[in-house]
Design a protein that fits this description.
The chain folds into three domains: 120 residues, Acyl-CoA dehydrogenase/oxidase, N-terminal domain (Butyryl-Coa Dehydrogenase, subunit A, domain 1, Orthogonal Bundle), CATH 1.10.540.10; 96 residues, Butyryl-CoA Dehydrogenase, subunit A, domain 2 (Beta Barrel), CATH 2.40.110; 144 residues, Butyryl-CoA Dehydrogenase, subunit A, domain 3 (Up-down Bundle). Helices cover 49% and strands 12% of the residues. The chain is built from eleven helices and seven strands. The strands form two sheets. Strands 2-3-7-6 form a four-stranded antiparallel sheet, with no helix packed on it. Strand 2 and strand 3 form a beta hairpin. Helix 7 packs antiparallel against helix 10. The termini are far apart. This is Acyl-CoA dehydrogenase family protein.
Length: 385
C-alpha cells in the first residue's frame, strides 16, 4: 500500500481492512470498463461485496455487523472507488444509510432490527428513493408527487421515482410519498412486487453502473407498520461523506495512472521519461496539492463527527464543505492527470476517460455546491462578532 493510502490509517485493523478492500477494488477495476461501456449493473461485484462482508460494515455489533465509524467508512469507500467508482457510489448509499439508521434512531426498532438481521444473514441492502422528475431533488425541499393512501390493511403507494440507485438488486427500499388526508410527507418501507416496476432509463455520461433507473409504483402495498415514524436524532448528515470519499478514490486512481505514465513514457525528443520535465512536475505537484488538501478536510470532518457527538447537529456547514472541497478538487486532479497524459487520455481503451466522466457526477450528488455555499454564508452571518 502506497504512502498516500497509509497517511490516514491509524491502526493495524484499519490496515488489514483496507488491504482486503484493495483486493476487491483490483477485481472490480478489471470489470469496470465493460460495465461502463454497456451501462450494465455489476451484479457480480455485489456478490463479491456480500461474500466479503462489506454490506454489514456499518451494521451494529449487536446485530452481527462490524459497526465501523464514519472515519472508517470514508476509508473503505475511498479505497473501493479506486477500483470502480460506480460500484463504490452505489454500495455507499447502502452502508451510509445503515450508519445513519444506526445513530439516528429513525426507524422503529422492530423494522430496523429485521433489516440488520437480513443484511448480515442474507446480504440485503437498502436505499431511499425520493427524487422525482417533476419536483427535483428532495434536498431542495420539493414535495413529492408520489402519494400514499391509507387503507384498512396498510398503504397503497403510487408514483415514479428517478435516480433510484441500486434498483436492479434491491428487494426492499424506502420511498417518500405525500399523504393527502394528512397534508404531510412521510417515508414507507416497500418490498418489490408486481406493483413495482423498474424502467431502465439510466443511460448517462458517468457512473453508468449504479443502476439508478426509474422506479414506478402502481398502488404498491406497504403494511400498516411500514410507515417510518421513529423519532430522529439529528446527526448532521455525516453519513453523506460516503459521496466525497468515492470521488476522492477516483481522483487518486487518476493520479496514480498519470504518475505511472509520466515515469514510463519516453518520447524520442525528451531523452528520458516526461516525469523529468519541469512542466510535468508542476502538474504533478498541483495534483498532490489538490489531493492532500482535500483529503485533510475530508478526514478531519469524519474524525470530528465520530469524536464529538454533541456537535453533530451543528456540523452541516463543515460536512458540506468537505463534500464541496473534495468534489471540486477531484475534478481538478482528473483534469491535471489528463493534461499530463495528453491525447491518449481521451481513449476509451484507458481508464482516465472513464474517471473524467465519473468524477463529474459528484457535482450532482447532495449537497450541491450552491446549497453548501448558502449554508456557509448563513453560518458566517449568524456568527457573533
Amino acid at each position: 500500500m502506497s504512502k498516500l493510502w497509509n497517511q490516514y490509517i491509524r491502526n493495524e485493523q484499519e490496515h488489514q481492512r483496507l488491504n482486503q478492500i484493495g483486493e476487491l477494488a483490483s477485481v472490480f477495476a478489471e470489470r469496470a470498463a465493460k460495465h461502463d461501456r454497456e451501462g450494465s449493473f455489476p451484479f457480480e461485484n455485489f456478490a463479491d461485496l456480500r461474500e466479503a462482508g462489506y454490506l454489514k460494515l456499518t451494521v451494529p455489533h449487536s446485530s452481527g455487523g462490524d459497526e465501523i465509524s464514519l472515519y472508517e467508512l470514508v476509508q473503505a469507500q475511498e479505497r473501493l472507488a479506486y477500483g470502480d467508482g460506480s460500484t463504490a457510489l452505489a454500495v455507499g448509499w447502502h452502508i451510509g444509510q445503515m450508519l445513519y439508521l444506526r445513530v439516528s434512531g429513525k426507524w422503529p426498532s422492530s423494522l430496523y432490527e429485521e433489516l440488520c438481521r437480513d443484511v448480515v444473514q442474507e446480504g440485503a441492502m437498502i436505499n431511499t428513493f425520493a427524487t422525482e422528475a417533476a419536483t427535483g431533488s428532495p434536498s431542495r425541499g420539493a414535495k413529492p408527487q408520489t402519494t400514499a393512501v391509507c387503507t384498512d390493511e396498510g398503504w397503497l403507494i403510487t408514483g415514479r421515482k428517478t435516480f433510484s440507485t441500486l434498483s436492479p438488486i434491491l428487494d426492499r427500499f424506502v420511498v417518500s410519498a405525500y399523504i393527502p388526508e394528512e397534508d404531510t410527507t412521510a417515508e414507507f418501507l416497500v418490498r418489490t412486487s408486481d406493483r413495482v416496476q423498474i424502467i431502465e432509463t439510466w443511460d448517462t455520461l458517468g457512473m453508468r453502473g449504479t443502476g439508478s433507473h426509474d422506479v414506478v409504483l402502481d398502488q404498491a402495498f406497504a403494511g400498516a407498520d411500514a410507515r417510518i415514524s421513529g423519532s430522529t436524532l439529528d446527526e448532521g448528515g455525516g453519513w453523506l461523506l460516503h459521496i466525497p470519499a468515492c470521488y476522492m478514490g477516483i481522483a487518486i486512481a487518476a493520479r496514480d495512472y498519470a504518475l505511472t505514465f509520466a515515469k514510463s513514457y519516453r518520447p524520442n525528443q525528451v531523452g528520458g521519461p516526461i516525469a523529468d520535465l519541469p512542466l510535468v512536475q508542476q502538474n504533478l505537484g498541483l495534483m498532490e496539492a489538490e489531493l492532500r488538501s482535500a483529503r485533510s478536510v475530508l478526514y478531519e470532518a469524519a474524525e470530528r463527527w465520530d469524536r464529538d457527538e454533541e456537535s453533530r447537529p451543528r456540523m452541516r456547514p463543515e460536512l458540506g464543505l468537505a463534500k464541496y472541497i473534495v468534489t471540486n478538487h477531484a475534478l481538478r486532479v482528473v483534469d491535471l492527470a489528463m493534461r499530463i497524459v495528453g491525447g491518449t487520455s481521451l481513449s476509451r481503451n484507458h481508464p482516465l476517460e472513464r474517471y473524467y466522466r465519473d468524477v463529474r457526477a459528484g457535482l450532482h450528488n447532495p449537497p450541491m455546491d450552491n446549497n453548501v455555499l448558502s449554508l456557509l454564508a448563513a453560518d458566517a452571518l449568524a456568527d457573533e462578532n
